[in-house]
Amino acid sequence: MAKHKKSASLTEKISILPDTPGVYMYYDAEGTVIYVGKAKNLKRRVSSYFNRTHDSLRTNLLVRAITDMSYIVVPTEQDALNLEASMIKEYQPRYNVLLKDDKSYPWIVVTNEPYPRVFMTRQRIKDGSKYYGPYTDTGSARATLDLLRKLYSIRSCRQPMTLDWVRAGKGRLCLDYHLKRCKGCCTGLVSAEEYGRDIEKVRTILRGDIGELLTYLRGEMEKLSLEMRFEEAQELKEQYDLIRRYQAKSVIVSQTIEDIDVFGIDDEDSDVYINYMHVRHGAVVKSVTLEFKRRLDESKAQLLGYAMSEISESLGVKFDDVIVAEMPDVEMPDVRFIMPQRGDKAKLLEVSQKNARQHRVDKIKTMEKRNPETRADRILMRMQSDFHLSELPRHIECFDNSNIQGTNPVASCVVFKDARPSKKDYRHFNIKTVVGPDDFASMKEVLTRRYTRLVNEGRELPQLIVVDGGKGQLSAAVEALDEMGLRGKIAVVGIAKRLEEIYFPGDSIPLYIDKNSETLRVVQHLRDEAHRFGITHHRDRRSKSQAVSELDGIKGVGEKTRTALLTHFKSVRRLREADLDAIAEVVGPAKASIVFGALHAEE
Q1: Residues near 440 by Cβ (< 8 Å), separated by ≥ 6?
Q2: Are residues 440 and 510 in the same domain?
Q3: What is the domain range of residue 240?
Q4: Are both 149 and 232 inside the same structural domain?
Q5: Averaged over 146-167, what is the pLDDT?
Q6: Which residue among 262, 409, 501, 514 is buried most deeply as judged by most CB within 10 Å?
Q7: CATH number at residue 437
Q8: Which pTM value belongs to this model?
Q9: Taking the alpha carbons of 24, 27, 31, 34 in that order, is the dihedral positive or negative?
Q10: How many angstroms separate the CA atoms of 184 and 186, rounded?
Q11: Is-annotated flag, keyword DNA-binding (predicted)?
């Protein structure tokens, strides 16, 4: 394969690269960082970009744009992964995978003071305070804070409260004290040790060790009850019930799973969603979903490596046992990766992957709510991919034949524009040249009439034709397009009724689309509309034919007379039941006599 040319200075830099872990940066002619990568072996990894032509077009474009490079050597591949993640955030290179939802999540902080405060924040300051979270939405963090304040009288004031300040009597009791929301820390009504015991229980809840706290509270309740201290026991019972309700909101996965981390991935296109869940004592206590944008066809393994680095850095997580769908492209000697096939761990991975999938669905719904055209574009792009079309099928037409035992053969044409019905463009066709129930010939006639007219009038042709039927109807449609010179200008497929099989011209093996696919739903909607529209027209023609058949043979009764009678009496049955005078009021005595006599001739 051809090698990409590189400058002498770049060649020299590559030749002296070390065989050690590190991070490399590529620059373009303007000196802008266009790509940052990590490597277990810098020399081998960087050289691989230039010694062959790549399958990915974007990778080839990247290599052509590189005019210079630099690198940083680090002790381990894990260090390289972390450094790569931070440098990508710093430089935002155009060819790197993009972490799209890189944002600051809310945390709950317990301050490092004699009388600690507990509040929500998005900033982490290294002052000895302890941070818990992050919480993926503000509502969840606020709900947790509300629980803690119901359970324990935690001060909410922002006063820096040192022990010397309290002893000096500088504090004043506020409204929270009188509402029993605070125990009066500022005036020393509660000691730092007693207040600290409540804070330790708060920390226990925030860590997710709820089971341990419930056991403690139950023991204290029983102890107080035995000592006849029922009011105090009742206060603990209220706390116990609140914590139990809070625990019920956690996802219980298994009593056998203790502490473990899970990474589920939803990889459908260039947008990739990776969900991270932390399980503690069998309950999911943390869940975060990251969104990545592919730039160079990065593999799942690479993306999982990026996600683990991001979670480790932003949440301060140290991994031990990690459940994954496949082995990440990262070297972590102290981490045990688990790829379960069955059991509780497999179910847990499935939950994580469903969360990643749901994040995608929610994102799409939000976008479509803001811009309804986005949904149509997404559906049409999926149809274009599924049917291998050269352009978006913004204009689709579907045809269906309808006849009963060969009588009154008709066909219907329904039109969808931007994946929605365009009912003003629907058309009916009465079959003119075909004798008997011949669906194939009828299909050919209708398509020939439809598109000959559109071409002659210079009107827009559809990008896709759907015919209701299998290979036979599809062949008839293709034959019609061939004869009109439209083959290749309009794509055509057939849908068989029984198994929802999609047939393509010249291919005897049908395509089976996922039952939940939006492409199949649109095609089914087209087919059902064409069937409904055709049946309605056929029923109208058949009813009209049956209604006038008995009047057609009456000599001396013309079309105007028949129309007047049916308009007034609504049906031949009512006309037969009417007396001579009633008929005469509509068409006169002479005509009435002829009609009345013909209808009652047998009598």
Answers
A1: 472, 473, 475, 476
A2: yes
A3: 107-252
A4: yes
A5: 81
A6: 262
A7: 3.30.420.340
A8: 0.47
A9: negative
A10: 6
A11: no
